[in-house]
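Suppose you are handed a protein chain with no further information: no name, no annotation, nothing but its sequence. What can you learn? This example shows the usual starting point.
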Amino acid sequence: MKPKKSLGQNFLNNEVILNKIVDSGSITSDDTILEIGPGTGNLTKKILDKCPNNLIVVEKDKDLSEILKKKFGKNIILINRDILDCVKTFKFDAAIKVFGNLPYNISTEILTSFIKLKDLNKLYSKFIFVFQKEVADRIIAKVNSKDYGRLSIIASWKMDTKKITDINPNYFYPKPKVWSSLITLTPKSYFCVLKKDKNLEHITYTFFNQRRKMVRKPMKILFKEFEEIAEKLNIDLNLRPQNITKEKYLELCKIYESLAQ
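A reasonable first move is to predict its three-dimensional structure. Written in structure tokens, the prediction is:
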């Protein structure tokens, strides 16, 4: 099967990494597993070896779907659709685990689609994802680091994140030009409840659209009484966006929502 560049297909074929991915999910016989973009089924086979209760695979490519049907038959529940079209349609009796070697071109869109779900922590217990390393570094970045930004804040809003390992390009076919990273994301039981996730996206965009500028400028754009709000939250207006903690951005978002008419 020749990988399709248009779908961002890079098949992972290293046994050590495949085992590490599966082990990161701590699969039990009670688990229902969702795998995104199984490709030729290398990871699918490893997951099945752990004997989960159910394995649902979502594969957009029709040709690959046929290959998966022949390989695994009734051992999997196959959905031949784009994952972005069905994120909101999944409903389960218990929280499930999600695996995925995500296509580079839509990986952040897939992640944020899950984060925006209202009942994220009730539907999903853990995400085990392979991202482009640059994206993974942004997801797990801490305040005051060069990679810290919008994705760091939005991901940490509802998730605890952890990097497991970096992955050499040689372990994929075709070989990508960049390194990848395996990370886990665990939904939080408790998180800051916002009226609309779009408000946090707006707040973070306003700040990080000019990340080299002092935060005085975005504060002034967002709030009429920006100096009073900065004083209330103990925010130094001479700092840069990457110097403001994730918690402060959520507090700013709550204030923004309370002032919105």
